[in-house]
Amino acid sequence: MKSQQPLLSVRELCVDYITESGDVRAVNSVSFDIMPGEVFGLAGESGCGKSTVAFSVARLHKPPAYISGGEILFKGENILHFDDERLRSYRWRQASVVFQSAMNALNPVLRMEEQFCDVLIAHNPGLTRYEAIKRAQELLAIVDIHPSRLKDYPHQFSGGMRQRLVIAIAMALNPELLIMDEPTTALDVVVQREILQKVYALKEKFNFSILFITHDLSLMVEFCDRIGIMYAGELIEVAPSKAILTAPLHPYTRGLGNSFPPLHGPKTVLEGIPGTPLNLLEVPVGCRFQARCAKVHDRCRQEYTALAEIRPGQQAACHLYADGLADDELASEPLIFAQAAGC
Question: Which residue ranges run through the membrane (predicted)?
Answer without folding.
Answer: none
